[in-house]
């Protein structure tokens, strides 16, 4: 199987399903435990961002339209995970990386998710399609032992 | 995949909060509540995490805040069950939490830090 698609409600109850979906695909591709953990966290963080930021802060947005579409693609040398939602624009590339010391001093508890996503994946592309929503592409490559 | 569980016990006069299950965004509020409920322990506590199957960044943020509040109140928080737990070791190191929080290799060593 080179491609699978999951359409699922954008609710926190479904976060584990989204992680399972991406992980089971990645496992079959031969990623090691450490890389699978990286993928799990990146997928979870972005799905959480959609729920909290793209959909969560818009009470006008009808619940039946709060859908997350996740597509996993097998690349020659890795995995590509594509997220699409119908919510408000949220560009992770515009989110600055946090200073962890300041995080503690200022008692902040948010802002680490995008950092984790950038840290754990090899590539990240973002696009907002007008009238459609956010589309993000995450890629992670298999490390080869030469 | 399992729901978050938090169980408090007193061992050798030291409070141990055992956390297990998934700490994704759904589990963040129960985690925050579990920590708040034990904030009154005078010396602090050990957070035993060997049963944690996943930890998201928001949960790590809650932990950072709790550790900071505990320090300001003169209390100690020691994490254990992290070093051998493949599910959470990498994210905790990557986010830098291991530099901000005291982590003991095992429960016995964590208890020694309170003696």
What is the arithmetic mean of pLDDT of chain B? 92
Count of helical stretches of chain A: 4
How would you classify the helix and strand content of chain A by structural class?
alpha+beta
Taking pLDDT < 50 over at least 5 consecutive residues as the criterion, the unreliable ranges of chain B are: none
Question: Strands across the major sheet of chain B, in which order?
Answer: 1-2-3-4-5
Work out the strand percent of chain A. Answer: 25-35%
CATH topology of chain A: Heat Shock Protein 90
Q: What is the rounded Rg of chain A? A: 15 Å
Unreliable residue stretches of chain A: none
What is the CATH superfamily label of chain B? STAS domain
- Within CATH, the superfamily of chain A carries the name Histidine kinase-like ATPase, C-terminal domain
Q: Fraction of residues of chain B in helices? A: 40-55%
**What characterizes the major β-sheet of chain B?**
5 strands, mixed
Give the N-terminus to C-terminus distance of chain B in angstroms.
36 Å
List the domain count of chain B as a whole number.
1
The arrangement of helices and strands of chain B along the chain is EEHEHEHHEH
Taking the sheet with the most strands of chain A, its summary is:
5 strands, antiparallel
**Compute the gyration radius of chain B: what is it?**
13 Å
The tally of beta strands of chain A, per DSSP, is 5
Distance N terminus to C terminus of chain A?
Answer: 27 Å
Topology:
The complex is a heterodimer of chains A (146) and B (115).
Chain A: E1 3-9, H1 15-28, H2 33-55, E2 67-75, E3 78-84, H3 100-105, H4 112-120, E4 123-129, E5 133-141
Antiparallel strand pairs in A: 1-2, 2-3, 3-5, 4-5
Helix pairs in contact in A: 1-2, 2-4
Chain B: E1 5-11, E2 14-23, H1 25-37, E3 44-55, H2 57-72, E4 76-80, H3 86-95, H4 97-100, E5 102-103, H5 107-112
């Amino acid at each position: 199987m080179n491609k699978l698609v999951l359409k699922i409600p954008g609710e926190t109850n479904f976060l584990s399903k989204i992680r399972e979906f991406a992980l089971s695909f990645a496992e079959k591709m031969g990623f090691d435990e450490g890389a699978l953990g990286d993928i799990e966290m990146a997928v979870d963080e972005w799905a959480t961002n959609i729920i909290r930021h793209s959909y969560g802060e818009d009470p006008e947005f009808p619940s039946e339209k709060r859908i997350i579409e996740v597509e996993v693609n097998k690349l020659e040398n890795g995995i590509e995970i594509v997220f699409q939602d119908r919510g408000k624009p949220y560009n992770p590339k515009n989110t600055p990386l946090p200073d962890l010391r300041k995080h503690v001093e200022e008692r902040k508890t948010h802002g680490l998710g995008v950092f984790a996503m950038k840290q754990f994946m090899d590539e990240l592309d973002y696009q907002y399609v007008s009238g459609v929503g956010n589309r993000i592409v995450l890629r992670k490559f298999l490390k080869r032992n030469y | 995949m399992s729901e978050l569980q938090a169980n408090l016990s007193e061992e050798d006069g030291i409070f141990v909060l055992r956390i297990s299950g998934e700490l994704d965004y759904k589990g963040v509020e129960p985690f925050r509540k579990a920590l708040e409920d034990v904030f009154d322990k005078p010396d602090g506590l050990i957070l035993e995490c060997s049963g944690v199957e996943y930890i998201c960044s928001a949960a790590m943020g809650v932990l950072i805040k709790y550790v900071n509040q505990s320090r300001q109140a003169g209390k100690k928080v020691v994490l254990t069950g992290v070093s051998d737990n493949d599910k959470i070791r990498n994210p905790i190191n990557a986010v830098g939490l291991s530099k901000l929080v005291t982590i003991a290799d095992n429960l016995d060593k964590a208890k020694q830090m309170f003696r």
